[in-house]
Amino acid sequence: GDSVTQMEGPVTLSEEAFLTINCTxxxxxxxxxxxxxxxxxxxxxxxxxxxxxxxxxxxxxxxATYRKETTSFHLEKGSVQVSDSAVYFCALLPGANxxxxxxxxxxxxxxx
Amino acid sequence: xxxxxxxxxxxxxxxxxxxxxxxxxxxxxxxxYWYRQSLGQGLEFLIYFQGxxxxxxxxxxxxxxxxxxxxxxxxxxxxxxxxxxxxxxxxCASGLGFSSYEQYFGPGTRLTVT
Lengths: 112, 114
Description:
Structural class of chain B: mainly beta
Order of helices and strands of chain B: EEEEEEEEEEE
Largest sheet of chain B: 7 strands, mixed
Distance between the termini of chain B: 37 Å
Mean pLDDT of chain B: 93
Distance between the termini of chain A: 41 Å
Strand content of chain A: over 45%
Radius of gyration of chain B: 13 Å
Number of strands of chain A: 12
Order of helices and strands of chain A: EEEEEEEEEEEE
Oligomer: heterodimer
Shape of chain B: globular
Number of helices of chain B: 0
Low-confidence stretches of chain B: none
Largest interface: A-B, 22 and 26 residues
Structural class of chain A: mainly beta
Number of helices of chain A: 0
Mean pLDDT of chain A: 94
Helix content of chain A: under 10%
């Protein structure tokens, strides 16, 4: 079945540091890939998405590129802020109107 | 516009009692999903509605769990004879349906079974 693997956390960075959060997936066919973010005390929010190979999703300074050859969708940001402290989930969707499969999530803490 | 809303935001119940969790999707969204977020299991899919029909119920963990959707809008997730392992945050999401890829999540209901 489909699965998503995220790197182990938690991750603690200083403000303005470079961020990479690894995500790899296993799926049949050509899934869409997502990063969701959960800020403290809030619900899940879509951060960015990519629906086909080589697409780059971007939002709020975050980027991720859909790499079919390595089955990866790593999240990057060049300079993190304290306000980026949250839990980040990688997810895949096999097709429209289907269920999301999530990774375990990783907690990011950014210190001033 | 209004997002997905869920009620109650918190529910504490005694083992063995029944609970009902409610989800109000974004107006016009035909697809509705229930997920569960727990410390041990992460985020798990429970059930998917398209309109009032549930073409995918594969994530419901036992026959104590059921869900319905009426009028293509509000959905209720019912857990009968609650157990401590049912303690989790229950998340609802809605989507446009019909080739839509995005799901919009509500704030969740935190269920604690004592």
